[in-house]
Amino acid sequence: MKPMAILGLLLIAFGVVALAYGGISYTKRETVVDVGPIHATADREKTIPLSPLVGIVGIVAGAGLLYTSKK
């Protein structure tokens, strides 16, 4: 398989995942209290939102790469 076709398939897969999930979530540990030898931390969940436009552009770009790799 051609490298352009593989990249096209990866872009299509990324676009579908971006449309399905709508964002990337991760957990970050933050220090809440730091007084002398006492340390208190809290886990906070953060989300990086992905616009549906990102998913659509990924799918269209991947389809374009697949189309041009077949020529």
Describe the secondary structure blueprint for this structure:
Layout: H1 3-21, E1 23-35, E2 38-49, H2 52-69
Antiparallel strand pairs: 1-2
Regions with little confidence, pLDDT below 50 for 5+ residues: none
> Which range does the strand content fall in?
35-45%
Would you count the extended β strands for me?
2
Terminus-to-terminus distance? 13 Å
> What is the number of domains?
1
Query: Biggest sheet, strands in spatial order?
Result: 1-2
Structural class: alpha+beta
Order of secondary-structure elements? HEEH
Describe, in short, the structure shown:
The protein has 71 residues and is an alpha+beta fold.
Description:
The chain is 52% helix and 35% strand. By secondary structure, the protein is α+β, with helices and mostly antiparallel strands. It has one domain. A hairpin with a 2-residue loop joins strand 1 and strand 2. Helix 1 (3-21) packs antiparallel against helix 2 (52-69). It starts with a helix and ends with a helix.
